[in-house]
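Here is this case:
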Amino acid sequence: MKDETKLFWASADCLRVNAYKKIIEFYGDLDAAKDAILDPKKSVLLLKHDLQQIGIQQKSIEKILEKTKKVDLPQQEENLKKYGAIVLCHDDEEFPHSLKNIDDAPVFLFAKGDFSKLTRKSLAVVGSRTITNEGKWACSHLLPELSQAGFTIVSGMALGIDTLAHKEAIKHGSPTVAFWGTGLDIVYPSVNQKLALEIMQNGVVFSEFPFGTSPTPYNFPRRNRLVSGYSDGVLVVEGKEKSGSLITAQFAMEQGKDVFAVPGPIRSPLSRGPHKLIQEGAKLVQYASDVLEAFGVTQNSLFAQENVHQCLPKNADEKNVYNVLSYSAMHFDEIVRKTTISAPKLSSILMMMSLSGAVEELSSAGWVRR
């Protein structure tokens, strides 16, 4: 297939895999199909008849004819060159193998990045756009070890958990993949411009949508099936009962992928999504080892088992502080009140316990056990 033909059909964004296969069978290849559709001598009625004859539904025929007529190929070629992207077709060797056999498999993908960085194992990490301290804590404690275990971390580059997942992967030397709900010329959200470049340097950005596609609510559920389909499993960290992360998890279940969920405080609306998934059979995750074991990786959990002795309270004051704290953040003044330790002395104690790994400060929210 010619490169311009591939770009033409990808830019039209009108073919699903079944129609794609039928058109190939009828015309021989997409080059011939493109020539037939753009042939000014061929009537629309004849084109519709041809497509009906090979079993394509009327609604799909209308979509194909409408969208192909709107493609500005010179402009799309300019965009492809400007943004340094490539177009992958379903039958290309470079096309992600994991996406070829999912339901409603994509026919074309726009892509940009470094494919050589990608590893064979991949894990999607998704969750709420409104991230809490518990969500931040979970990502910062699970993802370093998962990254070190050789996973490519996959997400959708949305605000919140998605953004944190990509950043943690890059921070710990893991490749990362982002699936966008826009064209590759539109970074969404716009605050992630820098992150988008970092992902392209440390992995690949994919989009099913042609250049110029703006973010619309319809795009993201469609994008989510690719996040799960590309990955070997999906880890959900926070999410409401009806949310994009739950849609991704549902796609994963339908695709036969492993689904993992991090539990949270029962009063939090953002815990309801993961808790629902756990009730439906998702694996509860407390440590990275809970995920690794599902993939046959037998290394010990860094956070559950390593340096346990070092993290334990060293004296009565540290024990007092440790017993007062929990896994929900507590403000410094509250710790002073509950422990009756003076503020200057408590600052010193918390600093030493933080260095040993027993406690952690969550910015202005307060202190928690690790």
The chain has 18 helices and eleven strands. The domain at 308-369 is CATH 1.10.10.10 (Arc Repressor Mutant, subunit A). The chain has a mean pLDDT of 91. The radius of gyration is 25 Å.
